[in-house]
Amino acid sequence: MTIILGLESSCDETAAALVTGDGRVLAHRLATQEEAHRPYGGVVPEIAARAHVEMLTPLIAAAFEEAGLTLADVDAIAATAGPGLIGGVMVGLVTGKALAHAADKPLIAVNHLEGHALSPRLADQSLQFPYLLLLVSGGHCQLLRVEGVGRYKRLATTIDDAAGEAFDKTAKLLGLGYPGGPRVEKAAALGNAKAVPLPRPLVGTSEPHFSFAGLKSAVMRAAQAGQHSVEDIAASFQQAVIDCLLDRTARALSNSHGVTALVVAGGVAANGAIRAALEKLAADNDLPFVAPPMWLCTDNAAMIGWAGAERFAAGLIDGLDVAARPRWPL
Ligand code: KG4
Ligand code: ZN
After folding, report:
1. Atom 1 of ligand 1 has which residue's CA nearest to it?
2. Superfamily of the domain at 3-117+296-313
3. Tens of pLDDT along 261-309?
4. What is the ipTM of this complex?
5. CATH class of the domain whose range is 129-260
6. Which ligand is nearest to the CA of 270?
């Protein structure tokens, strides 16, 4: 059975994992840099890159130890080659190249978004192409028709902020700190989602895309007005995001024939209220709903190893001259 070493270092998580071609995660190790970035209220690229240098090699060693394997046992090395903070991407990709060169193994340069896009197939081996994917993370908010490995049709994207970015900015405005998404979700659970009237940009329009900038500005005005509790603003904000995601996804579903499932992936998919709303939308459309477990939604190396395994099976190998890419649309 194929064994792939996966490496992830594109943002503020450093991670290494060993994944098999039939979807078993033999080991996964992850170090989050939350503490290092917290004083700055967001990810500082220079600090992130330095932390990846320190953390990645010990994490790889720990993953091999956990699985009882050595570099000689792997069939290929898959590393995130973008998109992301370029200093961090370079650390993971160069480490992958060095290991591939030293052990004479193939290198697979994985698009981080492809890692998220294929992660539901690691979680649920029965998930077949084509599926409709809502990819919601800190940097991206897209609807994709996933037709096969390396075959992604983008149906919608955000015209301004990503959904996770809106969560992070709202958390900052409300003084909830970093990282924002989980903290807003926690505060929202204690608030009234109908308390604060907030806009739902683009909802009900024939336009396929997402927009969250207007929502963020409205949250800022509500926070400054001081008439509502943090919990009520958080709950109203989260509901507005859910309404936007649902309306846009429903629109894409009605235009997307023959999909096998509605699938959500990316860090924002860790949000329980968003998962529940999407699950209901799928049921209303007589489609199965697939969402990876929480740990597989936020950045990790198992999804990179799995995307590597899918690419390896399809014969998609890269040369050691492959470049790190800060921007890389799927
Ligand atoms: O996929 P990810 O780990 O990194 C990127 O590739 O961007 O996503 C991180 C994003 C952050 O914006 C974070 O606030 C958001 O996912 N997030 C959440 C939750 N957990 C993480 N957003 C809403 N609710 C959550 N529970
Ligand atoms: Zn991500």
Report:
1. 267
2. ATPase, nucleotide binding domain (3.30.420.40)
3. 999 999 999 999 999 999 999 999 999 999 999 999 999 999 999 999 9
4. 0.98
5. alpha beta
6. 1
